[in-house]
Design goal:
Number of strands: 12
Order of helices and strands: HEEEEEEEEEHEEHE
Helix content: 10-25%
Length: 176
């Protein structure tokens, strides 16, 4: 029950913010520069939501999807996802590693990360994503729940990560 309350509380906290925050750190072991954005909600329904964040590790762009109470299965490294935009254009994303879902009582959740090309991300800036198809070990399923007022979330995160938009706050945690 505590885990369920944590997940629901976490989702509510994430859904309150509309700002794009940027966090920067340098990995002590690899010396890789890591930029990341704060999670924002793409949609939420009773006891469920889909959140999004983005990371850049050196020159690799990573799109993160956190879903609470969803029907997601394990994905293998390299499994494809497709982002559908308002214009009808589609952009391929690829799972960065083997990733699976977790269950807490009646709730299921996952955090899956996908790699995307810089070229495709630049095109998505002016073309609002309206849905995502996730391929998994059992086939695929489509997510069309991105609310119209939240369709700018992904393009705004891309702008912040690429330095095309100033973040609302910038935290450098290099010394931590």
């Amino acid at each position: 029950m505590k885990k369920i309350l944590f997940i629901v509380s976490f989702t509510l906290v994430c859904s309150v913010s509309f700002s794009q925050n940027l966090y920067k750190k340098v990995d002590a072991f690899t010396k890789a520069t890591i930029l990341s954005t704060k999670q924002e909600t793409l949609y939420d329904v009773l006891l469920g939501s889909m959140n999004f964040y983005m990371r850049k590790v050196d020159n690799t762009y990573i799109l993160g999807f956190l879903k609470i109470n969803g029907s997601m299965y394990s994905v293998a490294e390299g499994d494809k996802g497709i982002i559908l935009c308002k214009s009808g254009n589609t952009y391929d994303i690829f799972s960065r590693a083997f990733q699976q879902w977790e269950g807490y009582g009646n709730l299921q959740s996952f955090i899956h990360e996908y790699k995307a090309s810089e070229e495709d991300l630049k095109k998505m800036i002016d073309d609002e994503p309206i849905g995502v198809r996730f391929y998994n070990v059992r086939g695929s399923y489509d997510e069309f729940g991105i609310k119209e007022r939240r369709r700018s979330v992904i393009p705004n995160h891309i702008k912040v990560i690429m330095g095309l938009k100033e973040p609302d706050n910038k935290e450098d945690s290099s010394n931590q």
